[in-house]
Design brief:
The chain has 755 residues and is an alpha/beta fold. The protein is built from 31 helices and 21 strands. The strands form four sheets. It has a six-stranded mixed β-sheet. A six-stranded mixed β-sheet has the order 18-17-19-16-15-20, with helices on both faces. A five-stranded parallel β-sheet has the order 13-12-11-14-21, sandwiched between helices. It is globular. It starts with a helix and ends with a helix.
């Protein structure tokens, strides 16, 4: 047994055997909840569904449930291994549905090779599921089963082995043709293999513009030509052509495209050498291709290749299709998945491959750089944008073609899908929408950092802000060019080449701080530092906000900000805050996570008020818990006492704010504990704002939640400054930078007087 096989066996046996489980979506902790979930309460939704059958989608999971059905007669490249042996594959399919599109799955292995049994089994499932994904069923049985089910059932039925491959391969073909400068209607395409995947892919290619007469199929008996009888069926016969060609080698001579859906090693280097100029080779046999990219490279330097493997560029992976296709179909309650929906999915994937790839995708692939071209024709599976591109396109196609039961607003649907990617993304999308209404000029001090440059490009593309990079324009352009980045719309400023501006900034800084020990010479020197120069841009009205610090310690950045822009009126101490987003609960706001190491009671008061003010700007009512190791005086200690004092001060200054403490973190976050043990508390619900007694506890709390609890964290957000100034943490991702620029831009909108 090889190492990979051993690792796979260990993977499937660790912890609970298998890869899936059923998890309740409603609480079931009390007798009351039991009576609602089952008898007698469950009778209420039953009666509603009896009177209105469509109510099943409101009161049950049916609308988000897909049955993955197989009889195990054609499992991967393993052949007819039976239903039990196919179960690991079907569980895997369920994992992919859940991971990429949040669709629940029942994997159902049918103990019969009779197509009629499979058909009847699926028909009987219709009241249970919202759609059926047929999987690993041999040809031609799969054609018969799918056709009958599509004719007799009123839910989407999709055979992924056929149509999934077709959708992904067609997207890759469209982009490969664009890269090579060829037209779909003109290319000659050879298929090695004539099974379900190959036949369906060919059919879909014709929908994308390939001429049917330009398709040549080769199976184990040679070319499929008119009049051939051996090894034929009605599905192959549809693609029979009038030709004298009889072998794969003959068919490939002068061909523009090869699609291999057959077996390992079937295509030789000599066959590849005989193809037309700039050939396109999709060697998709699984797990090993018909010919490897290394072998092709020995005879061709102008070929574009795709395989079914993840260790080569351009993996034609069905996971790019079926989760998102079903997502869109289920969300409009489509009666079927039709060719129009498949075309929409193909075009959406092809277009997405041309968009700038975010760093989060590169991070999932160990920092690999992706840029549209011969080695990047289709998106990667772990690109979350696939959901946002494909599902809405499919849903719209379903509505336009008349198979959707419900009509939805596509833009609102896109927002819902974005929200499904994580609660943190939901709040950021609201802020992004606000930022786009009036894009502000945001200065990024780390102009030579590749992540900052990449973020600047995406900020322009998304219309969030007008980014200004600090640095020499030629050096920034050089770095951008190295990484294939486009800086159109990005401004550049550099103190060295801005003598007049730099001198004016220095004089302004000197005038404001000459009685605080700053000399004119020191002011002039500071203007060569990006943080000081950027701060003065904002102070003098030449920009609206500053974001920086990705290559500096946070403590090194506060002083320049305070010296240049200063605190807002009435603010004694600035503070740092993080937004903490956990699935299945409302947003949390943590302070102070960045600035004040050991705050006294007065500083804690300021932190609470500043944090509450930010939360209110988001349209959220703050419920503040002042956190300690003590619950309402249970421990007599100075640390607890300062927290109690801060609570009293906040109540005096802002009697309208819901706040209480001191209390332990679990008390603050658990409504049941508050109600049962501390009914006197001014907090009637779990807190959404946690103010910690010191920087150590606050910093540790949000980082533990991020690392161990899977929380999304947004920040740090600097509160209390006269002008928006925010500092990144070392190691911040491109997404972190964009988030902070968005927050800075929204902050600046309320303050800016710049036209």
């Amino acid at each position: 047994m090889d190492a990979r096989s051993k690792a796979a066996l260990e993977y499937h046996t660790m912890g609970r055997p298998g890869k899936i489980e059923v998890i309740p979506t409603k609480p079931l902790n009390t007798q009351r909840e039991l009576s609602l979930a089952y008898s007698p309460g469950v009778a209420a939704p039953c009666l509603e569904i009896r009177d209105d059958p469509d109510a099943v989608f409101k009161y049950t999971a049916r609308g988000n449930l897909v049955a993955v059905v197989t009889n195990g007669t054609a499992v991967l490249g393993l052949g007819n291994i039976g239903p039990s042996a196919s179960k690991p594959v079907m569980e895997g399919k369920g994992v992919l549905f859940k991971k990429f599109a949040d669709i629940d799955v029942f994997d159902l292995e049918v103990g019969s090779e009779d197509p009629e049994d499979v058909i009847r089994f699926c028909q009987l499932l219709e009241p249970t599921v919202g759609g059926i994904n047929l999987e690993d069923i041999r040809a031609p049985d799969c054609f018969v089963i799918e056709k009958r089910l599509q004719e007799t059932m009123d839910i989407p039925v999709f055979h992924d082995d056929q149509h999934g491959t077709a959708i992904i391969a067609a997207a890759a073909l469209l982009n490969a043709l664009e890269v090579n400068g060829k037209k779909a209607s003109k290319v000659r395409v050879v298929f090695s293999g004539a099974g379900a995947s190959a036949l369906s892919t060919a059919e879909h290619f014709t929908r994308m513009g390939v001429t049917r007469d330009h398709l040549i199929f080769v199976d184990s008996n040679g070319v499929i030509y008119e009049g051939r009888e051996e090894g034929m069926n009605e599905y192959k016969a549809r693609f029979a052509v009038d030709t004298d060609l009889r072998t794969l080698a003959e068919a490939m001579e002068g061909a523009d495209v090869l699609v291999g859906l057959s077996v390992k090693g079937l295509v030789t280097k000599e066959m590849v050498a005989s193809m037309a100029q700039r050939p396109i080779i999709f060697a998709l046999a699984n797990p090993d291709p018909e010919i490897t990219p290394e072998e092709v490279a020995q005879v061709r330097d102008d070929a574009i290749m795709a395989t079914g493997r993840s260790d080569y560029p351009n993996q034609v992976n069905n996971v790019l299709g079926f989760p998102f296709l079903f997502r869109g179909a289920l969300d409009v309650r489509a009666r079927a998945i039709n060719p129009e929906m498949m075309i929409a999915a193909t075009k959406a994937l092809a277009e997405l491959a041309k968009a700038t790839v975010p760093q989060s995708v590169a991070a999932a692939y160990e920092g690999e750089v992706f840029e549209f071209g011969p080695e990047y024709l289709i998106p990667k599976p772990f690109d979350s944008r696939v959901l946002l591109a494909v599902a809405p396109a499919v849903a719209k196609a379903a509505m336009d073609s008349g198979v959707a039961r419900v009509n939805i607003d596509v833009e609102q649907y896109e927002d819902r899908l974005k929200a499904s990617l994580g609660p943190g993304g939901e709040v950021m999308r609201g802020l992004i929408d606000r930022a786009r209404k009036r894009p502000m000029k945001v200065v990024l001090t780390d102009g030579y950092n590749e992540r900052v440059i990449r973020a600047a490009q995406e900020i322009v593309e998304d219309g969030i802000a007008v980014p200004v990079l600090i640095g020499r324009e030629d050096k920034i352009n050089e770095i951008a060019e190295q990484h294939g980045l486009d800086l159109k719309g990005v401004e550049v400023a550099h103190p060295v080449v801005s003598d007049e501006v730099r001198h004016a900034y220095a004089e302004a800084l000197y005038a404001s701080r000459k009685r605080k020990g700053l000399t004119r010479a020191e002011a002039r020197s500071k203007m060569y530092q990006p943080s000081y120069f950027a701060g003065m841009m904002v102070r003098q009205g030449d920009a609206d906000a500053v974001v920086g610090g990705i290559e500096s310690h946070y403590s090194e950045l506060i002083r320049p900000a305070l010296e240049v822009t200063g605190r807002a009126d009435g603010v004694r101490r600035v503070a740092g805050m993080y937004v903490v987003a956990l699935r299945d609960r409302e947003l949390l706001f943590f302070g102070d996570t960045a600035v004040n190491i050991d705050p006294d009671a007065h500083t804690l008061t300021d932190i609470a008020l500043l944090t509450a003010g930010f939360v209110e700007k988001l349209g959220i009512v703050p419920r503040i818990a002042m956190v300690s190791f003590s619950n309402f005086g249970s421990v007599r200690h100075p640390e607890a006492q300062k927290v109690r004092q801060a609570v009293s001060q906040v109540k005096e200054l802002r009697p309208d704010i819901e706040i209480d403490g001191e209390m332990q973190a679990d008390t603050a976050l658990n409504t049941e504990i508050l109600k049962s043990q501390y009914p006197f508390s001014d907090l009637k619900r779990a807190a959404n704002v946690l103010i910690f007694p010191g920087l150590a506890s606050a910093n540790a709390a949000y980082k533990l939640l991020a690392e161990l609890g899977g929380a999304e964290v947004i920040g740090p957000i600097l509160l209390g400054m006269r002008h928006p100034v925010h500092f990144l943490q070392r190691g911040s991702t491109v997404e972190d930078i964009i988030n902070l620029v968005t927050i800075a831009s929204v902050d600046a909108q309320a303050q800016s007087t710049r036209p």
